[in-house]
Design brief:
By secondary structure, the protein is α+β, with helices and mostly antiparallel strands. The chain has helices at about 40-50, 50-60; strands spanning about 5, 10-15, 20-25, 30-35, 65-70. The mean pLDDT is about 95.
Length: about 70
């Protein structure tokens, strides 16, 4: 999945597949995670957030199923 680099203290890049609802998040510490069943609206809100790290922590981290890729 192609990811887009983001300006954030904790996130390095974010990718999204609308067909599957998979949100891929790469952290600056090297971790890479896939979050399931994320809506296009949630992805858009993350990308528009002033603080992407804060938005991720408050709206995505504990609300969606995930798996660690690396």
């Amino acid at each position: 999945m192609k990811r887009i680099a983001v300006i954030s203290k904790v996130l390095k890049s974010v990718g999204y597949d609308k067909a599957t609802g998979i949100l891929e998040v790469e952290f600056k510490n090297g971790g890479l995670y896939e979050y399931s069943d994320v809506s296009p609206e949630e992805y858009a809100a993350l990308m528009l957030a002033t603080s992407k790290g804060q938005y991720f922590g408050e709206q995505i981290r504990d609300r969606y199923r995930y798996r660690r890729v690396r």
